[in-house]
Amino acid sequence: TKHNGRNGYHFFQPSMNALAQTQLQLMNDLWLAESRHELRLLYQPKFQAPAGPAIGFEALLRWEHPQRGLLAPDAFLPLAEKTGVIISIGLWVLNEACRQLSEWRAAGYTNWTMAVNLSAMQFEQPSLIDDVMSCLTRHNIPPEMLILEVTETTAMSDPDESVRLLTELTRLGVKASIDDFGTGYSSLLYLKRLPASELKIDRAFVNELRAEGEDATIVSAIIALAKTLNLRVVAEGVETVEQQAFLTELGCNTLQGYLLGKPLDPQSITHMVKHTPEH
Ligand code: C2E
Ligand code: CA
Ligand code: CA
Ligand code: CA
User: Fold this and answer.
1) CB–CB of 41/96 below 8 Å?
2) Which residues line ligand 1 at a C-beta cut-off of 6 Å?
């Protein structure tokens, strides 16, 4: 390896193809992103159906890459998982989201919840419970205001372990949400045992939602299942008023999507709220 004063370490070999070089450079940059203050969070509001006030926000990670510009998670999360850097990035996300929530709480928005996405690798960390607990303490956040979103696939990869972990988190008072529901393979038996408080219907089903379409059947079935299990239902990716009306009619509790609110930086959120009559 050769040290390059400005850009950190380079692992380039003349024999490497361009793609491998790009990946290595990206990996190198990713390890430094946090210390270079290139990571930031956007916050997407969640609304009470059909069009109530914002009840909380989901933190969504972005990477301000010095050369490539603003990167969405799809562009770097797989690499972050593969290299393990997701662990420190995930801790940064948890901490920054809680810090932001405590700032909002101090400004009077004490009813807002904060949802944080957990990656599979984070979910498997033995220190997860301690990390969550110390984060809540550090920012003086009531545990029930924090929602941890875990995908159905992650939750079902080791169902017994997930039941154990979510039970511990629930004991702390933190809420758990099963994300991207409908894309994985849930055992109904385990779903019943999982101490989650909400299900998020995957965007793919909401996208295709037409009153007569096949996905209407699937979405109705998911909502009915969630109600049976006493779970709140969140629909993500709501883009049209038809979807909004239909999901509300089916009994969906919470709506999220570009129609109602895109992911925003914190400044725009306080600005938006100050200019909304409800607040
Ligand atoms: P997700 O958790 O399912 O988040 C929803 C994604 O859908 C977000 O994409 C959001 O910007 C996008 N979205 C929201 N409403 C709409 C809509 O109406 N239409 C469309 N087309 N898209 C909508 P984003 O921010 O690019 O994040 C993608 C995924 O990356 C997330 O999916 C989540 O799995 C992951 N992710 C984001 N932030 C974090 C993080 O801090 N940690 C971890 N581990 N994963 C994260
Ligand atoms: Ca999510
Ligand atoms: Ca999702
Ligand atoms: Ca997703």
Assistant:
1) yes
2) 44, 59-61, 72-74, 77, 90, 93, 117-119, 179-180, 203, 236-239, 257-258, 263
